[in-house]
Design a protein that fits this description.
It comes from Sanguibacter antarcticus. The protein is mainly α and 256 residues long. The chain has one domain. It has 12 helices and 2 strands. A two-stranded antiparallel ribbon has the order 1-2. A hairpin with a 5-residue loop joins strand 1 and strand 2. Helix 1 packs antiparallel against helix 7, helix 1 runs parallel beside helix 8 and helix 5 runs antiparallel to helix 8. It starts with a strand and ends in a 6-residue tail after the last helix.
Length: 256
């Protein structure tokens, strides 16, 4: 089935949570009022959702080009994977959103630097949340905490993530639904755009370095294994979840 995947237990799981969450996020952003900031955040979120759902529905699951490095390798070989298209599409929508959010009184060079760096933050955040959507509730928990922090720092738009996470929480933890690329990319893009719109330039650069560092690390190490081998992270990861199968415990909660 196009809207179904096999999860880490080998069981079927629905992808319909993703579009539902994405629509909820865009509506939540729009409810904050008409402004350039609202348009920028809705564009970043909607763009990430659209290119994410293309990857969800058209991805060749037999394709070996997994991860950012795999998609870049495929591009060098003259092949554009759905994941590669997603990288380009989310990157483009992130740049447009950043251009709408950039300060108007800056010089041309500084504006260009800000647009490139902030656009990269939007796209990289979308990718990072997607990397976390490998176990039930993991992406929602981390995104909800990040959104709450952004809300405290003065971003009402980020609170849309808290609402979406709350609505999807039970089905996600019950392993009935998952965000998929559509939902995870939309959540991450909104978090990235909300960061751009609500925190200072030095903080944005620091967040970009952290997000890019985690993304690079994911190409070499398994987040799931690190979480399984770190007791306090594993406790957080298991809140609300079904107990692990013996095989999962033996393998360090998987290799993804």
């Amino acid at each position: 089935m196009r809207w179904s995947r096999t999860n880490h237990r080998g069981e079927p799981i629905s992808l319909l949570e993703g579009p539902a969450v994405a629509v909820g996020l865009v509506c939540g952003v729009a409810a904050a009022g008409r402004s350039r900031k609202t348009v920028a955040l809705a564009l970043a979120t909607g763009g990430a959702a659209v290119f994410g759902v293309i990857d969800d529905l058209a991805e060749d699951t037999s394709e070996r080009s997994k991860g950012l490095r795999g998609h870049l390798r495929a591009a060098r070989q003259g092949r554009l994977t759905t994941g590669g298209l997603k990288v380009l599409g989310i990157g483009a929508s992130g740049l447009v959103a950043a251009a709408l959010l950039v300060e108007r009184d800056l010089g041309a060079v500084r504006r260009a630097v800000d647009v490139l760096a902030d656009g990269a933050l939007v796209a990289a955040s979308a990718n990072l949340v997607n990397l976390l959507d490998l176990r039930p509730g993991r992406a929602l928990k981390s995104s909800g905490l990040a959104a709450a922090a952004l809300g405290i720092s003065g971003s009402p738009h980020a609170l849309a993530v808290v609402g979406a996470a709350s609505s999807a929480w039970s089905a996600d933890l019950a392993e009935q639904d998952m965000l998929g690329d559509c939902g995870a990319n939309a959540v991450g893009a909104l978090l990235g755009a909300a960061t751009v719109s609500s925190v200072s330039r030095p903080v944005r650069r620091l967040v970009l370095v952290v997000v890019l560092g985690l993304t690079a690390a994911s190409e070499r190490v398994s987040f799931s294994r690190i979480i399984a081998e770190t007791p306090w992270l594993e406790r957080l990861d298991m809140i609300g979840r079904r107990p692990l199968d013996p095989q999962e415990q033996t393998l360090g909660n998987g290799t993804a």
